[in-house]
């Protein structure tokens, strides 16, 4: 198993601003670009799943799209 961090799962390094007592987020959808180095994620539009330390889903965050 690799020790490399995933782009799709983020453990919080600070207190979450979400309304839940969540421990991490799982990225379900994001903008992206493909270049010579691979895929680069952009977080201007996203859907996150908020999870607690046991992995239970607490809620979903969806970005607002500007007109």
Relevant terms:
67 residues, mainly beta, 4-stranded antiparallel beta sheet, 4 strands
Question: What does this protein look like?
Answer:
By secondary structure, this protein is an all-beta fold. Helix content is 0%, strand content 52%. A 4-stranded antiparallel β-sheet has the order 1-2-3-4, with no helix packed on it. Strand 3 and strand 4 form a beta hairpin. The relative contact order is 0.24.
- Class from helix and strand fractions: mainly beta
Order of helices and strands: EEEE
Q: What's the total helix number?
A: 0
Distance from first to last alpha carbon? 43 Å
**Mean model confidence by pLDDT:** 80
Radius of gyration: 13 Å
In short:
The protein has about 70 residues and is mainly beta. It has no helices and four strands. The chain has strands at about 10, 25-35, 40-50, 55-60.
SSE map:
Layout: E1 9-11, E2 24-35, E3 38-51, E4 57-62
Antiparallel strand pairs: 1-2, 2-3, 3-4
